Amino acid sequence: MSAPDWWSIEVMDVEDGAVHTATGWRDAYAHGLTESLITNGAESWQWFEHSWGVVLEVSFTREESWAGWLALPGTQAALDAVPDPVRGLLVHRGHGGSSGAYVPRTPGSDPYTERVSLPEPLVP
Q1: Burial readout 101-121 (b: 16 or more C-beta within 10 A, e: otherwise)
Q2: Whole-prediction pTM value?
Q3: Which of 32, 42, 44, 84 is least enclosed, having the fewest CB within 10 Å?
Q4: Where is this region: Disordered (predicted)?
């Protein structure tokens, strides 16, 4: 048995204040997408809501299953209906939307130095 791979579909809100939102898109298409995930062998899926939009993370054990699900007419119709299909849609392998901003450590600092400091040893 192989380990499942994760793929993400990230849908961003439209920046011009349009009526259509990523959350509204999810509400309209979540049922159909979920049904097709079940019938096409998805191992797991989960929706995440962010301040900028929504993410659907999907897990399949075989890449061919992911490609088959993605090519379904219903899946393509849902992706075509996102609020901004040109600049507001990302489809990629891996988890999405949840990683924080990259903040580098100070050069030469030990990654553990910012944790709890230990008390100084008692000297008699």
Answers
A1: eeeeeeeeeeeeeeeeeeeee
A2: 0.73
A3: 44
A4: 94-124
Task: Report the CATH number at residue 81.
Answer: 3.30.70
Q: Which two tokens stand for residue 33?
A: 């997408």
Q: How large is the average pLDDT for residues 7-24? A: 83
Q: What is the pLDDT of residues 57-77, one digit of tens each?
A: 999 999 999 999 999 999 999
Query: Is the pLDDT at 109 greater than 80, yes or no?
Result: no
What is the domain extent for residue 53?
18-93
| Contact (CB, 8 A) for 89 and 11 | yes
Task: Tally the residues of the chain.
Answer: 124
Facing residues of 77 across strands?
none
Amino acid, res. 18: A
Whether 100 maps to a domain, the answer reads no
